[in-house]
Amino acid sequence: MPARTESMASRPIKRAxxxxxxxxxTQTQKGTVSTNEAExxxxxxxxxxxxxxxxxxxxxxxxxxxxxxxxENALQQFKEGNPEEYYKLVKVFTFSKYTSYITVxxxxxxxxxxxxxxxxxxxxxGIAYRELVTTIFSSDWVVCSDEQxxxxxxxxxxxxxxxHPTWVPQAISAFVRWFTYGARDKExxxxxxVHDHLHALVKEIYCTIPTxxxxxxxxxxxxxxxxxxxxxxxxxxxxxxLRCLDYATGIRRQVLQLVLNYTIQIDVxxxxxxxxxxxxxxxxxxxxxxxxxxGSAEEGIFEFEEEEDTKDGIVDRSSENEASASESGSDSESESGSDSGSDSExxxxxxxxxxxxxxxxxxxxxxxxxSTLFTWLEKNFQRDTTATDELPESAFQxxxxxxxxxxxxxxxxxxxxxxxxxxxxxxxxxxxxxDVFLGTMMGNVGEPIRTQAQxxxxxxTKVAAASYLGSFVARAKxxxxxxxxxxxxxxxxxxxxxxxxxxxxLKDNAAGLDDQKQQQQQQKARPLxxxxxxxxxxxxxxxxxxxxxxxxxxxxxxxxxxxFRWRDLAEASGGGPLVETELDSLHWCHEVxxxxxxxxxxxxxxxxxxxxVAQQFASVSSQTNFMFCYVMLQQNRRSNNAESSAAAASSxxxxxxxxxxxxxSLMMTSSNHILRVDLDTFFPFDPMALxxxxxxxxxxxxxxxxxxxxxxxxEESDEExxxxxxxxxxxxxxxxxxxxxxxxxxxxxxLSALPGGAF
Length: 759
Hints:
Oligomer: single chain
Radius of gyration: 36 Å
Low-confidence stretches: 1-17, 23-60, 293-349, 526-542, 655-672, 711-726, 732-737, 739-759
């Protein structure tokens, strides 16, 4: 009986609630409020009137109960085909900082009581209520400074995702779009707070729903800014993408791959713009020459070649670019997130000026992204000074991930100019890292005797690996003399084994093998002298480049390392420290014993290597009394001149076509040219010229040193008194040194000027 009495007493309350809801709806429909008030009205206003009406009737009704019932009723009515109350609820959560008519504070005040009401109906928020759920995710709630409100709102989002994981992709995409918040000047102050809010929520989602890693990785790819975006937009995205790895370790490879791909795209753009700049400058010089102009080519825009301007040239251009960008950056430009501009804004519509501006702009962007990556790597590869002073195991696993992506992304990209310095920097953090990198590159080069399995690795990849070996050992200041000698010794053994194998093939062919066996052998190993140019007088012979491209790349790496690190390969005859003024009696390590055979072999590597490397090796080796090979260089030069003349004559005879006129010879010439240009112009660790990023590299970078650079001032003054002839010789050698110092930014030699270019 008491229970029945309690039930009957509760009925008026229910009827009162129902009548109040109807009264609120009727009042709104009749337009009893003004237009502005109608626009700002929400179910919260109805909830406020509930307390007053209920008080007049002597009944006390909790506002939270009413809001919970309102949400439940709105969802049910929408399901039944009456969306009016449902869209009122959607309007409650709709908020954009820049387009909404209410302030952030007003939004917090209105939404706060509705959060528990929606939380009470979480189980009902299925796919049918897409508008409401996506509005909750995409609202600008993260800009609120009220930490208590942010916590409640983030909890609501997490509850929705926990109950309905199908919403994870939409939610993650809505949150990741905030990673570039702060690019506008008026957003800078609040950006750290916003990013903290986002990462706190994304971290909770990742811990609660581990399968969301795929959605997070996909959202990062979709949110990646275009290359035309401003540098600060790119930096913000990279910073926040890498910050995800602090908690989302399961997507480490995907995030690193995204960042490296993004960086190398900008890197390649820099190289392409510089090549366009050089091409435009050369065309302009030719036009001036045709018109009788006598202007100096050095007054052109492409000044990156000079060593004196290598550091300052890009710095000045970058500074000018940043200054001009800041001066011309209005609010509208900042909000666009792009640095595209009109010709008049950047000094005219001339094509050369456009290329010049594009090159500077690309350099600034690349420097911003690279410096961000260096900062992140430095933070994640800190030694534990309180314990063993060693890098943690997690750091080594991160390094292995970087090395793996380097093999996939960076190694095959010949136009990459600076991205590889990320791995260069990592290798300096621990001797084990450098050892693993050198071993990986040596594995890519492969064995000198090619098997069927090794032939699956392209010659381009092998040539690139050899180039990385030579350039890394030459430039890494942190490598010990023991490691330098070891790498040189391994490569010298590789080159000698290759020569042994080729000579054995010749002996087998000369022994009169039957035709079938000889054909099989030729398929496995191409003949040593498949194409001989320039007679048969010993070392002047030269086989076609493509068939021995890896051998030539390995040999060039050896010569390149010798030019830079010969001091680590020698010691004084008495075993004491090396004195560069006493080079007549040097004792060379046993690792270089086979170099003379390689250099003077019938494959003639000095003719195939980059001319600057061959010339500088001849200079350094003669000054150190290691070997003398100027005579071979002179023979190669005469052979090149003779071939150029023969090629010109043949081209005239065939009406300007390829000598022989066959498609196969055209393909061979093209293939040879591609590999030759790669070998002549690709030195991956040439000087770092990015003004900010170079601060991470300069302390660990080995700069070029002339032979005898440690001479006394008296000896140097005596050398200056030699004569005009010696001065001219020194000027020529200085030109070669300049090419050695800045190899990858030197002009690409045309095919007709390359050794054997008439193939």
